[in-house]
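Subject: design request, 194 residues
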């Protein structure tokens, strides 16, 4: 009797594992876009805020590496939820260079950085939110400042595997560009008031 039950049990387990809906991995490249909100407050001036559409290209590589335009990190996924840990020093260096390109020497420190989201059961769409807080020190004015940025996004799968960044065809600002623009506008306003 035991001999006849074992093959049926093995067959049942095999059928259940094949027919059970499998969650697709977030691995691959995604075109994302959504609303970016940025607030900049520099000591001695009013807070400046901007809200605009921003886009990016997220690539979740096998083995846990992650890239978005100009920034790298790592990712993990539990069921449908993913969490990305971005490299804070990449972000600090990127912003410092962006401000230097505008003619300003600014120290940037990332104080908070969270990127989380969820993949749909079909594995073809994702949605999530990135929040970031920065502390600034603007040398020419000798003033500290703070930046709060949030990015609520949705995305569509570009390919089942990693794709090069050159595949991005987005023409909107990235979140980093939106933050840099708002900070530069705030610094220009400070200059005009002095």
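Subject: RE: design request

Done. Sequence follows.
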């Amino acid at each position: 009797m035991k001999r006849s039950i074992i093959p049926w049990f093995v067959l049942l387990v095999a059928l259940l594992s094949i027919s059970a809906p499998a969650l697709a991995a977030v691995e691959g490249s995604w075109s994302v876009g959504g609303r970016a909100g940025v607030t900049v407050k520099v000591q001695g001036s009013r807070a400046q805020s901007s809200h605009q559409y921003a886009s990016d290209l997220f690539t979740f590589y096998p083995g846990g590496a992650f890239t978005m335009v100009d920034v790298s990190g790592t990712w993990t996924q539990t069921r449908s939820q993913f969490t990305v840990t971005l490299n804070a020093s990449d972000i600090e260096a990127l912003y410092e260079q962006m401000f230097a390109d505008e003619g300003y020497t600014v120290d940037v420190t990332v104080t908070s950085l969270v990127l989380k989201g969820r993949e749909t059961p079909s594995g073809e769409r994702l949605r999530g939110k990135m929040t970031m807080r920065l502390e600034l020190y603007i040398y020419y004015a000798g003033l500290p400042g703070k930046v709060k940025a949030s990015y609520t996004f949705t995305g569509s799968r570009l390919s089942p595997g990693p794709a090069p960044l050159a595949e991005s065809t987005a023409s909107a600002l990235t979140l980093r560009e939106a933050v840099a623009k708002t900070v530069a506008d705030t610094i220009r306003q400070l200059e005009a008031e002095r």
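The chain is about 25% helix and 45% strand.
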